[in-house]
């Protein structure tokens, strides 16, 4: 059904796929544009405010627009400044507006798709059926998640007052805008300042973000500016809460690795829960279920491209969520987690040092120990990820003074209990990377030379079996050995079976089974006919 859902002739699948693709594109553009915010629109200094304050205005302009335009027209100096800003920044203003408008269009298109899906516009499709399909479920969850990420990213990277000034400037200058264009009003309503990040856009954007005061009902009011179908939101949260949406559990087979396996899903759930804040506030049992599954041993969430948040302060305003996290932050639980991570770091550091010593990592050793090496790399990455997240500073680090103080205390406790040493951690990080590179190089070389090696080993095996057949036929005996026609014929048959082996993908499983059977047959014939007494025969059979 997955293939059918994303088939080119499946309008429903192609529509939601296109929406999700657009969502990823919008976020990429936002992350690019954050580097091109015109400094003048930040009005950082008093001089800039005095010089440009009458020209570059926030949404307060709309209340006095006529009077303000008259004031500018009556002052030649203001007119010159106004024209200067128009000429210098019109292109970038258009670009900012396009991405802002794209956010609004995205949620409108998603809502339209949901209405059409519920209205039966897509034949044989309904919301329930789409969520039952593996690909459909992933896309439906991603669609809501990406919209939430857009809102958080735009508020994090482009301060609210700067957004307002950019939109007002676009409204005043853009020749692309028409008087009948009402879409800008909706864009302004969606992206007006939240009061959460109205700081500067300097390199310290994130630190200034941390200094901002917690705005009342943020981000739930922000996420609710354009309503989203509540049934859809509930189904997305339900799937993220209960399912392994991306089938990651199979990659992390140990139960203790579950939170890492579901880390990406946990980040999506963190974002999507802001569309259903009643759950965060009041549904204690559901929040406890979520915390037990996703956050029992971690509390720093990376929800998009390294943007991290600490649940200790992010969920502090939400009663049910805050209560659910109490067990995670229990002192006994924290000590147990730290003890485990400390042991893991010490063990992995020693193991990676050992395996990376010259001569320890060879092709044959790697092939003989693939499961163990894979498990080692997995353990290294899990440990490095946890330590890096929980000893670092979250990107979004905002909350009440009490919660921020608690965050600092927990971070200091973690660093103390795991005996965190930057040099040793960095060594483990480098060892993990080096081990991955070496293994990748070995496996790549083996794959590149697979056909050549297969042909060579197959030819060599056939030759050795033929030598044994010739030896027992009496043509080329190994020293003083008796002629045995039955053994000679048996080895000839083995040679023919080896010749039939193929390494084509469609026959690999059959060939693998046949190889194992041939090896067993060679071992059994040694015991049955006592062939191991002749060292040349034994050597040939072992090498075969």
TrEMBL record:
GO CC terms, sorted: endosome; WASH complex
BP-aspect Gene Ontology terms: actin filament polymerization; endosome fission; endosome organization; regulation of actin nucleation
Protein family per UniProt: Belongs to the strumpellin family.
Protein name (record): WASH complex subunit strumpellin
Annotated organism of origin: Culex pipiens (House mosquito)
Taxonomic lineage from the root: Eukaryota, Metazoa, Ecdysozoa, Arthropoda, Hexapoda
